[in-house]
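ARCHIVE CARD
Drawer: 12
Card no.: 0347
Subject: one protein chain, sequence and derived structure
Cross-reference: see card 0346
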Amino acid sequence: VQLQASGGGLVQTGGSLRLSCEVSGCTFSTCTVAWFRRALGKEREFVAGIFRGGHTYDADSVKGRFTVSRENAKNTVYLRMDGLVPEDTALYYCAASSRVIMTTRRNPLYFDYWGQGTQVTVSS
């Protein structure tokens, strides 16, 4: 399984970005795909995900601002980020897993496959 994340960049506060994660070797019917981020000096944290059945879920810190979706024909998961603030600055990773369940879907330890990360920087 391989994941390729892209779409990061530098934006001003209030701006938007869309991250893409192209997934190969894992179908969306069996794999849950999620986005995590790691800010400088902080722990990796869950951002948003899309369960293998299509159910989406996100962190309280991004609720109402970030939207996760997928395009089956392109084997790609997207993270649309609106209303960006400097606190969203981080390296964003997409990850996939075929073994997460509802109680573990936010836990990075249950995701076995990771992309290389794409940097998002929000200036004030």
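Annotation on reverse: The first strand starts at residue 2 and ends at 6. The mean pLDDT is 96.
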